[in-house]
């Protein structure tokens, strides 16, 4: 068990442990909007000295903390787990805290704007209430009938694996706000709500699938999905969002889940 | 200014707040005020597991769990509370499962369990599998499941409302709870919430350290608000440094990694924990492992060009096991370090993780105004509170447990209090303190910046109040913090607006961190012994004669308006376990 592992030192580990001071100049191009001050949207460039291993969130903090305190965005955990900081970075939805500068070509200006299809309230902050309303509409909780067992409900490891992928959702809205159908029709539930419905429909313990499927059979439900895969590409948790939506569609037809 | 009236107000929507809300909403008209959307709370970052002696995979019982908790806490644990924690753990886990939590399963379909630091069979014989888990996303699943059940119960949330003050009204010489004052982020408006009962569940305060596993938003708001209103803070010197944070970043890599067989190694590849904890090795309690890591580093056996970290080695574990049991933390290593944990060891260092101390409560979650007197109508639960079930060092998986057991208890107790009692009158001009605070910051023209002061605070805390402390380093910390508090008086914010003014709120949060850091340092300076997470190189032994007692820190304001900290002490509740030397 105690065999030394140093022979396994890879180039990647050497690079990770490199403490030499690395610095590059980047341009962060941020879409600014504050209706309290003006109805105009402006794009502002910030030149920053950064380590390429830092995150876009670090760059935003650098602006806020050292240049302009009024730059506004949401964030909390800073490691891709709370879902606060989904934004459009170089035209693609990502979490700012999970995007390293070196991975998005820091030589060119890095554009940062709020996620699309939602009302912008200030700078990168959008109104999340409709998004959470769509989530609530799919009845995102375990529905069971009959008497509760004294101990836990049994579930095989296989049944548990059936819906594992969709349990990972952090409700960041990266998927929903990358969906062209949602951009055109804000009433569409959007992929995130369907992902969360999927999480229960395919949970062997749940007995509310019929109710939930009725909700999703609505004209603003799953049938609007045109399988563009934007959502799957956008999901920072690597959830196969499109596949989940397809599975829900199939369940609606076959009533088997 | 708006005034609202609710029977029960809960401050915070992490695990503790939502567990309380599920209970209190069924029993009383409840509002939950939270500065983050509920699912953004840091409970979601918890990884490894939640302890309960279910005995699903091997023999176990709540008495062993109680013992481990008390020993893990270096005998500063209140033993009656620890017993409740361990006994109610079983139902707490089963309740979550019934609410829908997708635990990992055994081949028989039961909730699976894994090993974790300090959890043992039969009083220390060997590691026991007690941690119930869902991959390395246990906290995420708890937070989601509780939120889902809040949706089901129709819990009323006020999202992005920052609670900045607690209202207490004196009735017949007794301070009673009247409500809270909150700042609405979207509009800058101030809201007074009149309530019969208030539950603080606002989480931890790790952001006064630089290398930390805590979110940017963990700034000890609840503790600071209570402290400013004259309530004591208990055992603030006890802060846990988790052994395995990603080097320099502090992002946590769960102890579950070692529970699954991961090994800590120094630059020679040596499994050094064998020297420090012959029985439990890498799964000794966290304070022991963190000190061992720093000892290795200090003695020149650290890794990397600067010898300032060690390795968490997972390379001998099958990739399938890593994918199934530790998918998130292996991804963190890939994303943030660019390395492949299948084949590379992961550079780690201890990271500031958990506040054992906080607002003192009894086992019903009632807040104490001194060693014995409760504040009628005021409750606290979760990391903001100190029951004390964690004593001088919390065992891994005992906090997710704590938030469920004591969140539930506080929610029930608060709602029942609200149904038995009437509103007390609001104090005159209830929002005045908050209005002053907000207005003066918005109008301030000083030349100090929040970020600079915060950085300086984090530097001094990391240097002087971390794993190893001495009189000298702690005095330095006290001095530095005093100076930073002076500078804070000249702080100004650039954003003068009302709408989503996070600039202003960061300034307020910094004020909270400064107050709490000072309490930590002053309490630590006075504790001339080493116990659990508090290690004094100048007093390396535990001193049960003089210090087997809880610190109670009070804010005092002199006639000239000068502030100071008064320290008092509270006895530890001992039931059946006599203090022994702590060996792993
Ligand atoms: C990375 C990490 C991993 C962990 N892993 C484990 C583990 O495996 N097992 C374990 O047992 N423990 C673990 N812990 C510890 C445990 O997760 C936390 O102690 C626990 O989740 C805290 O829960 P809480 O409800 O008290 O606070 P939080 O979940 O932090 O919630 C605090 C809430 O208070 C609100 N709030 C804060 N200030 C205000 C204010 N001024 N006004 C209004 N609302 C406010 C916030 O919006 C939030 O909703 C881990 C901790 C971390 C950081
Ligand atoms: S499915 Fe993925 S992208 Fe969509 S909300 Fe959940 S985590 Fe975010
Ligand atoms: S800050 Fe939490 S996901 Fe990015």
Automatic annotation (TrEMBL), chain A:
Cofactor note: Binds 1 [2Fe-2S] cluster.
Enzyme Commission designation: 1.3.5.1
Cofactors demanded by this protein: [2Fe-2S] cluster; [4Fe-4S] cluster; [3Fe-4S] cluster
Gene3D superfamilies: 3.10.20.30, Alpha-helical ferredoxin
Annotated catalysed reactions: a menaquinone + succinate = a menaquinol + fumarate
Residue intervals passing through the bilayer: none
Domain 2Fe-2S ferredoxin-type: 39-118
InterPro entries: 2Fe-2S_ferredoxin-like_sf (IPR036010), 2Fe-2S_ferredoxin-type (IPR001041), 4Fe4S_Fe-S-bd (IPR017896), 4Fe4S_Fe_S_CS (IPR017900), Beta-grasp_dom_sf (IPR012675), Helical_ferredxn (IPR009051), SDH/FRD_Iron-Sulfur (IPR050573), Succ_DH/fum_Rdtase_Fe-S (IPR004489)
UniProt pathway: Carbohydrate metabolism; tricarboxylic acid cycle
Keyword Transmembrane: no
Alphabetical keyword list: 2Fe-2S, 3Fe-4S, 4Fe-4S, Iron, Iron-sulfur, Metal-binding, Oxidoreductase, Tricarboxylic acid cycle
Pfam short name (any one): Fer4_8
Residue ranges annotated for the 4Fe-4S ferredoxin-type domain, each copy included: 159-181
PANTHER family: SUCCINATE DEHYDROGENASE [UBIQUINONE] IRON-SULFUR SUBUNIT, MITOCHONDRIAL (PTHR11921:SF29), SUCCINATE DEHYDROGENASE IRON-SULFUR PROTEIN (PTHR11921)
NCBIfam families associated with the record: dhsB, PRK05950.1
Family statement: Belongs to the succinate dehydrogenase/fumarate reductase iron-sulfur protein family.
Protein name from the UniProt record: Fumarate reductase iron-sulfur subunit
Organism of this sequence: Streptantibioticus ferralitis
Organism classification: Bacteria, Bacillati, Actinomycetota, Actinomycetes, Kitasatosporales
From TrEMBL, chain B:
Membrane topology term: Peripheral membrane protein
Reactions mediated catalytically: a quinone + succinate = fumarate + a quinol
InterPro entries referenced in this protein's UniProt entry, alphabetically: FAD-dep_OxRdtase_2_FAD-bd, FAD/NAD-bd_sf, FRD_SDH_FAD_BS, Fum_R/Succ_DH_flav-like_C_sf, Fum_Rdtase/Succ_DH_flav-like_C, SdhA/FrdA/AprA, Succ_DH/fumarate_Rdtase_cat_sf, Succ_DH_flav_su_fwd
Coiled coil regions, renumbered to chain: 467-494
Pathway: Carbohydrate metabolism; tricarboxylic acid cycle; fumarate from succinate (bacterial route): step 1/1
UniProt cross-references to Pfam families, sorted A to Z: FAD_binding_2, Succ_DH_flav_C
Top enzyme category: oxidoreductase
EC number: 1.3.5.1
Protein name: Succinate dehydrogenase flavoprotein subunit
Cofactors (names): FAD
Subcellular localization: Membrane
Residue intervals of the Fumarate reductase/succinate dehydrogenase flavoprotein-like C-terminal domain: 454-584
